[in-house]
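Predict both folds.
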Amino acid sequence: MRLQFEPAVHAVEMKDEIARSAAALADSGPDLIVYHCTDSSMREGRAGERILIDIVRAATGIETVATSALVAEALRALGMKSVVLLSPYLSNEVIVRFLQEHGVRVVADVALKLNGHEYVAITPQRWLELARQHMRDDADGVFLSCTNTTQIEAIEDIELALGKPVVNSNQAVLWGCVKRLASKLGPVPPLPRLGRLMAV
């Protein structure tokens, strides 16, 4: 189940819809709920992220985390304080502002200015080409922002080509969930195609 925010809509305005969706998920008895959208979870900074999480927790009583928090956690884990930011969005303004709030500097800001239905048309090879084209010496690595793309399939190739770490929204969520559920999941096999992050 996925919620889409219109750019002008704030988390508190979506409270009822978020709560209803979360309550429906809770019926399956998950150990963890993820509010899984990069743009909307970053849109109002840490304060907005906290509102989203509190809404879900209040509706379900289940531990909850947002994509935004897991991305920030992943960047810290890899020591990434400056990044090349690649996304399919019309603008990266929301993402840049959130990263700055977490002490991460965007040294190259690349938004492909696509509409939502066009996101998945960008191939992993194209994400690799964009990373090569826009990489800067002063970047610690690459942040591939968005959950509705093929970016995760390009992570290993980008890291091999550039010699720098890559964080993607979906990858960060998977990594964060595996860490939080380690006691229930047990040992997880190596996942080299998902990049350096998965070994941290």
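Second protein follows, with its predicted structure tokens after the sequence.
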Amino acid sequence: MPTRLFLFCFFFLISLSADAQRFKAGLRAGIAGTQISGDQLGGFDKAGIVAGGLVSTSLSQKFDLGFEIFYVQKGSRKNADPDNGDLVSYLLRLNYFEVPVLLQWKYSKRFSFEAGPTFGALVGTLEEDEFGALDQPRDFSNFELGVGAGMSVHIVDGLYFNLRGTNSVLPVREHVSGQDYRLNRGQYNSALLFTFHYIFNKKTTTE
């Protein structure tokens, strides 16, 4: 089901980008630093790849609406440190197809800012410790609802650098105890995305 949803969104993006009179289309690629809140580990220590496509259309002189589809690797990591007597290691890898819908504010010709909801479909998981893959890993939700905010810097014609932070607003997995307290209802994805994106075509307008 998540793969079919991604394919639907991917072909929808292609159909939009084919209309160069209304939309700008491009590709995005880079890396993500991620963590899972609620797993007793701190820091964006899990690195992953980010790759996909995007389209956007102008709402006004200052605002665009952006729609993206990309593959992103999230999760958590703790490396063992045997030199200091720490033999415990942990790796959680969560593979998502993510679909952000972002309102983009063109602050200047060089800088723009963005914010909006993100929707993720989980397509693969791996969880292991120093003994290997866990025999009975706890299940994750198949879908993720989150929010994202970031900024883009124009480098040269068509090429931009983007920094974005995202966080799930609904838990992706329950706590080990199964309990929750107020807004802390389980484990949540957090990610910092460092990507470049290239815009193939510029939107043309008619007076």
